[in-house]
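Possible regression after last week's pipeline update?

I re-ran a chain I had predicted before the update to compare outputs. Posting the input and the new output here so someone can diff against the archived version. Not blocking, just want to make sure nothing changed silently.
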Amino acid sequence: MLDLISHPAEHVVAMKASGVVTGQELQGAIDAIEAAKQAHPRVSLVVEIDGLRWLTLTALLKDIGYGLTQLGDLRHYHRAAVVTDQEWVTHLAHLEERLFKAVEIRTFPRREHAAAMAWVAELPRGEHEDPEEDGYHGA
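New output (post-update):
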């Protein structure tokens, strides 16, 4: 199961994965990411992974295909937080961090869920949509 969950920052796409993830569920997440990319210059992701067993073949192929299309578009991504207590997922996230240096990827144990949500909400200085968030308060 892959469900979108709410996050107070509009540039963040948050989701929770558990059990078996289907292609249709993954497509919903892809659609949310693409919508966020259209609305914001930089997006961040947070994925809570709890008891994930596998992806269906359709979901796996869709995940790989979408991931490959994003390699030339990494400038749209800022951060990705992976919240999990599953050790194999943590190792996979560290590998992705080495492969995709343009995106900050961090893992958080489930007990640090709030810290992960706060971390992905941060944007680099100069990239806030409201100039006051970057310290500009008018002339």
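Follow-up from reviewer: compared with the archived run. The radius of gyration is 15 Å. Marking as no regression found.
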